[in-house]
Amino acid sequence: MKLLNQLEARLHELHEQSLIRVRKTVETPCGPRVTVDGRPMLAFCSNDYLGLAGHPAVVAALQEGAERYGAGSGASHLISGHTSAHVALEERLAAFVGPYLVEPRALSFCTGYMANLAVITGLANVDKDTAIFSEALNHASLIDGARLARTTVKVYPHADLEALAALLEQSTAANKIVVTDSVFSMDGDLAPLPALLALCERHEAWLVVDDAHGFGTLGENGRGALAHFKLRSPNLVYMGTLGKAAGVGGAFVAAHKTVIETLIQRARPYIFTTAAPPALAHALLTSLDLIAGEEGDRRRGQLHALVAQWRDGLRLRRWQPLASDTAIQPVVIGRNDETMRVAAALYEQGLWVGGIRPPTVPADTARLRVTFSAAHTATEVAQLIAALNQLENT
Ligand code: PMP
């Protein structure tokens, strides 16, 4: 009982600090209008930025994929789980983001979390004398990848290129790896990728870019952050996720073919896990068609119009909307309990917005993380703006 008592005591502390997380149960397909625990809600908290998760063509492709390949892959990629659906997906992804890389190849993963663990450990393990330089607001999966690499990790302050330059200058490591989100997941702003890449090239360092929130939404045809900034370099290692704008699930790494071959041979999060169901890869081919085509352009246009409407319409004095042009539009409230009270008040009105607390964000910066989707309407966004403007005054 002593062991359970310890756990109970820790959970009680989380309660006291307004840090207990509660999972809500969604009963309908992913989209802005969902039924949650029996109640109709308007959701502003998913990462389905283009509204593809419920797109009939993607759903039909998933069904077709299951008929063609079965429900599961049955094994890891290096045993017998690597199918023609995975091959087709990797070829399409390599062609899609290839213009920004040199001699590109792509490798698919079950999740972005695992892709990040694989990239960082895979690149770090080739040389004992490795240093990792990690941006302060990086996603947890990048932080965990750096920990798992069991080597020197230097954290540089958010968007502080001078601090990073000084750290790179001081480092004598033979293998230097700079790691950053492209779109910061809890702030919505963009990393200064052109200047970061110039620094990395000067110091012969890798630049690992996690484009979880940029792939599909940024750049020409939704090709992501590298396209947005028009970058190209052999130093770039690109990670994109496929469960957000692409609407399905999984992730991929694209880089020079030698990097990818290294990951296939050495990266444990790639090697020692069952390959994702091939039907997902098959459905993703349809998602990619939609992202890259006219429908993708139309959906990105709608998303940007909704974000502009939101930024124009907010009239807040105490709560602070962060500067962001992306689909991620956080409003910093500060205290954990106040943040959760505001989120609960919105929820009462049928508006579902995530309340984000430490350790996901720094102490005293608890916030609402509002996310928009091309599937929202202007009327729905106006409803959220009105509710929030009014709540700040009550
Ligand atoms: N990187 C970033 C920046 C993310 O926001 C996320 C997902 N929240 C991931 C990686 C992990 O991706 P996945 O959900 O596919 O594991």
Automatic annotation (TrEMBL):
Cited SUPFAM superfamilies: PLP-dependent transferases
UniProt xrefs under Pfam families: Aminotran_1_2
Keywords from the named record: Acyltransferase, Biotin biosynthesis, Pyridoxal phosphate, Transferase
EC category name: transferase
Function: Catalyzes the decarboxylative condensation of pimeloyl-[acyl-carrier protein] and L-alanine to produce 8-amino-7-oxononanoate (AON), [acyl-carrier protein], and carbon dioxide.
Subunit record text: Homodimer.
Protein name (Swiss-Prot/TrEMBL): 8-amino-7-oxononanoate synthase
Organism encoding this protein: [Empedobacter] haloabium
Taxonomic lineage of the native organism: Bacteria, Pseudomonadati, Pseudomonadota, Betaproteobacteria, Burkholderiales
